Amino acid sequence: MVCVAAFIILALIGVFVAVISIFKPKIGKVYWKMFKKAWSCLWKKVRLQKCETGFKDDIKNTILSRIIVKHPKLVKPLSVVIEILSVIIVIIAVWAILTAIKSLLALWTLGTCNVTKPAACTLGTEVCSIDEEEPKNVFEATGRWFTEWGEIFEAIPDKFKTYKAEDYYFNYIVMNPEVSDKPIALDILDPGCSVCLKSYLNQKESGFFNKYEVRLVPFAIQDVDGNYKFRNSGIIVRYLFATEQLHSGLARMLLEHIFEDRNEDGTSYQILFNEDFTESEVINQIKLWLNEAGLDEGAIEEINKVANYPETTDKMNENHNIVKSQLKLRGIPTMIYDGKKYTGLFGVD
After folding, report:
1. Which of 140, 149, 199, 229 is geometrically suited to a Cys-Cys bond with 333, CB 3.0 to 4.6 A?
2. How far is the CA of 72 from the CAs of 64, 66, 67, 211, 311, in angstroms?
3. Longest C-alpha distance within the chain, in Å?
4. Rounded Cα–Cα distance for residues 51 and 41 (Å)
């Protein structure tokens, strides 16, 4: 293990030695000689052969040479410590390599290098993440590490899968009924998600809503305890479904108000709904928009009733099941169109 650990350490410091050797070639020669010995030892280990004992002794003697003269009694215990540290270095190096491979595979298959908290991955696409529960102890963390491997391998076939929007029976809002002759596109979003807002505006600007029959799927992200990631998303989704059921077209209007309108202070209503408004204030604002759209008190009260029906809860649960169990999404917005699944911010060309 000493020679394997030595190879790992020498490989890590190789860049710095290369720079130093420009000015002091002797250091580079000594380093290269040791590195070749370490590589030879590692290659023999890989082929299940014995390393040269001379190299192992060289490493130990180099480390212990100054101690052996002044404190000869410490040589034996320090030799054991060196062996233990070598094992630890090798374990850490192997773990680091496996973690790097896992992160790259997760980035390729799931669009994020952090499976548990997708938004924490700076290499992935910009998303509002659907997070898993954080491990509470080392045993749960170990179990979660292996579980993530399973999720990654399970997602590999999806990279080669042809997605059809028609295959997923979401409850949705009709975005543009005037283009019903166009190919169908699914657009899964959370009304409280800032990335969903930007993605929606980008789609609008690019003419996406004119090229496809877009079915907007309202989805309120929840944590493992059932709490909403954006505190009023649940009630907003309820009213979107109720409005779509009774007055198709007005649900789209509500979503546009949330994404595009600002109050008299210039604050986006999405921010107000997420951070300032209570649930009753959100409902009152939605009722005000519906009234401005031409609905009387009786029609608005009917929407209020439908929003609280068990059937509306069922619609939300059905969408949640498709997102989590069938599509296995780690973040939204997610769009399905032209046979592909795209997760993250929709960009404008």
Report:
1. 199
2. 9, 10, 7, 81, 81
3. 96
4. 5
Q: Is the pTM of this model over 0.85?
A: no
Q: 237 with 316, same domain? A: yes
Contact between 17 and 51 under an 8 Å Cβ cutoff? The reply is no
> 79 lies in a domain?
yes
Burial of 87 from C-beta contacts in 10 A (0-12 / 13-18 / 19+) = middle
Three-state DSSP class for residue 114: coil
How many whole angstroms from its chain centre is CA 61? 48
Q: Token pair for residue 121? A: 């991955």
Beta bridge partners of 188: 217, 334
CA distance 258 to 242: 16
Query: pLDDT tens, 164-199?
Result: 888 888 999 988 877 778 899 999 999 999 999 999
- Asked if 254 contacts 239 with a C-beta cutoff of 8 angstroms, the reply is yes
Provide the 10 A C-beta neighbour count for residue 145: 16
- Number of structural domains found in the chain: 3
What Cα–Cα distance (Å) separates residue 51 from each residue in 9, 55, 94, 138? 17, 8, 19, 35
